[in-house]
């Protein structure tokens, strides 16, 4: 019998899902601001769960690095922030250090770019092809589709489209393995984030800090972040209609692009906070149905988000539990390298200097 946990550190909530020999025993969602304001309390929650292995929170990902071996360089590569940059989801590095100090059995899991199943040519000048939580959501997708279709993991094929509380992303899965991805900072427009930036816009901005990566999306068009899903689901003003159309069109274009590497996916899977709004999910089904049948990924937990459930499956598999065949199918143990290994626009050395690491 083994207990494992998966953590999804989202912009709005941090979700925790626990499996005990494959059955859910912990299913929680906490406001991110509250969890990071009370790190000792969050650590206590993890201790009380008595898990033998915890997957995440891993940011842009590390290739299965145990927290006790994680250096400051590893943490900067995982969260991609220099020592003096407090943008992004503030406090995640503090949380990671606290988990290390508490000697919790945490394992940092890979992002899409770390996976051997993604050809090197698709990684050129890319960092964000899908953060570690997107790999976890895709793992849930592989598990879910195999169960529903009654097929082996090797027969699974889909495009995962995730519309989260801040970012949108898309991940391509063929023959049960992730083969490509468009991450939140390099992919479709998000609820709060602009997604992939026009290079001229980046030039005009003068400098791009981490905080700016969370801006320029649908919320910026509307001029509000509160009740964003409601504004997009039932737009009443011209800015709201523009924001909805921009977000949805960008998402559909991302799926269309990934269909070039998975030409006949069995399904388009929807996940993320915004897809829980039925009006948005309905519009996505209408626009995406020409590519493949559309199915909203629900998973097996009642509260924790899709990525937390996928992280729990991965932790269970890595611990030798019932989901070990899923981990093997995904090739997670073959992950390697860093998010900076495929840069040519700037050199990896220059990127390391920007992060303040050797």
What this model shows, in words?
- With 358 residues, the chain is α/β, with parallel strands linked by helices.
- The protein has one domain (3-355): ATPase, nucleotide binding domain (Nucleotidyltransferase, domain 5, 2-Layer Sandwich), CATH 3.30.420.40.
- 37% of the residues lie in helices and 16% in strands.
- The protein contains 13 helices and eleven strands.
- It has helices at residues 32-37, 39-49, 72-79, 92-101, 132-149, 199-205, 218-222, 228-233, 238-258, 278-288, 306-318, 324-330, 348-355; strands at 3-9, 13-20, 23-31, 53-55, 65-66, 106-108, 158-163, 168-174, 177-182, 267-271, 294-296.
- The strands form two sheets. The chain has a six-stranded mixed beta sheet with strand order 3-2-1-4-6-5. Strands 9-8-7-10-11 form a five-stranded mixed beta sheet, sandwiched between helices.
- Strand 10, helix 10 and strand 11 form a beta-alpha-beta unit.
- Helix 5 crosses helix 11 and helix 11 crosses helix 12 (324-330).
- The model has no long low-confidence stretch (mean pLDDT 95).
What is the gist of this entry?
The protein has 358 residues and is α/β, with parallel strands linked by helices. The chain has 13 helices and eleven strands.
How is the secondary structure organized here?
Blueprint: E1 3-9, E2 13-20, E3 23-31, H1 32-37, H2 39-49, E4 53-55, E5 65-66, H3 72-79, H4 92-101, E6 106-108, H5 132-149, E7 158-163, E8 168-174, E9 177-182, H6 199-205, H7 218-222, H8 228-233, H9 238-258, E10 267-271, H10 278-288, E11 294-296, H11 306-318, H12 324-330, H13 348-355
Parallel strand pairs: 1-4, 4-6, 7-10, 10-11
Antiparallel strand pairs: 1-2, 2-3, 5-6, 7-8, 8-9
Helix pairs in contact: 5-11, 11-12
